[in-house]
């Protein structure tokens, strides 16, 4: 017993010391802190939460930017150019990723580091590959907490990259202040077929690869996007989502994008929309974690696990209505013995 207390005290000091070092801007401690947050162990979870509590007052000052787009749109190349530009302006930039496939591939950003070679070497930049999920809602929580750690470590801009598949773009929209969609030139048919939903999440549509012979097509594409955006519900109250062009390879149009983000920040901070969104995001974060926990607790319940196949069969064979089946499952679930 005595040993246990001693051990747990020792660990407490560790988490606190780690927090101190992160506040001092130590990159090694930041990496260790993120590893702690990403760990799937129960014990590490509690240590990480202690560390976060200490860091919370020093978080929230960065501008959080989400970047999405189909594979090949040029997200990594854009982040290399954009991130390097921001560093050259004296800003500290952290790059994180939400990768819905990361548990299988180990995170695309990792392989991408070659595409962000210059940024990866920049002492003002910090690149972290996507964490693997572990349990339900895991990636979601880990990325948000990693973002907070980076802010406490003094990063001014957080870039969160995600491939625009499944629900990942919605998840990222919910954790950033400004969200941009990277698209290709000459979208034409793609533009027609594109999910309107994703455009309604965006604060900017960036037409990438506007270089060489592509530039003329890019201008046309920009016009098409602007026409469509005009009819869509804007993602942010009081902000008109517009299409811009850039070349991540030639590094043109990059400063215009940053200027737009600064205007966005000023406008939404003045109107209160910026802080309203952050408050709402915190509320939604709590709610989504509650839902995740409930779901996990329900499906991991041994009584539910043994009863569910039978009930499913009854519903499928048409001998029992769905609502009655669910009702019975919950009666069993809530029975405390
Ligand atoms: N000409 C031109 N090529 C570009 C530009 N940006 C990216 N590319 C090229 O497009 C290809 C895909 O770029 P990536 O940055 O890997 O695209 P991505 O969106 O990160 O792709 P995934 O990680 O697979 O989702 C690469 O061959 C890049 O060199 C650009 O501005 N101009
Ligand atoms: Mg990429």
TrEMBL record:
Pfam family, one: MeaB
Keywords: Hydrolase
The keyword Iron-sulfur belongs to this UniProt entry's keyword annotation: no
CDD domains: MMAA-like
EC number per UniProt: 3.6.5.-
Molecular function GO labels: hydrolase activity
UniProt enzyme class: hydrolase
Lineage: superkingdom: Bacteria
InterPro entries: GTPase_ArgK (IPR005129), P-loop_NTPase (IPR027417)
Keyword Heme: no
SUPFAM superfamilies membership: P-loop containing nucleoside triphosphate hydrolases
Similarity field: Belongs to the SIMIBI class G3E GTPase family. ArgK/MeaB subfamily.
Name under which the protein is recorded: Methylmalonyl Co-A mutase-associated GTPase MeaB
Species: Mesobacillus maritimus
Phylogenetic lineage: Bacteria, Bacillati, Bacillota, Bacilli, Bacillales
